[in-house]
């Protein structure tokens, strides 16, 4: 089971929803008024490579490109890759990931106990209820993070 945490992006004070890397660079490029060709020249990459990044077909393989993108767009690397722009946001993202990871570990442990042992019906129902509550809590954390940008 995988839970992906994505960060809500705010640009120019407006909520833009959840953006993936390729969507973010396209939006930032257009807000800077640059063409794909102009930006690819500035990054010293082929226009074809840059277009494939914007389409989400591939990603830059060179750290230099990410660093240059941060300069061109005047954003931090954290913001460019994760959508977070200050230490508080970084700490919140780390805490959310740790919380979700702990929840998943607990669900996984309970599931293993449930499957590996001969449990009475009462014990099974108890464990099923606990696993369901943990799963719903994890979903709630993700929902709050995605929709409200907070935990």
From TrEMBL:
UniProt entry tagged with the keyword Iron: no
Stored Gene3D superfamilies: lambda repressor-like DNA-binding domains (1.10.260.40)
Domain of life: Bacteria
GO molecular function, one term: DNA binding
Alphabetical UniProt keywords: DNA-binding
Cited InterPro entries: Cro/C1-type_HTH, Lambda_DNA-bd_dom_sf
Record-annotated HTH cro/C1-type domain positions: 25-80
Nucleotide-binding recorded as keyword: no
Listed PANTHER family: HTH-TYPE TRANSCRIPTIONAL REGULATOR XRE, TRACRIPTIONAL REGULATORY PROTEIN-RELATED-RELATED
Protein name as it appears in the record: HTH cro/C1-type domain-containing protein
Native species: Anaerococcus octavius
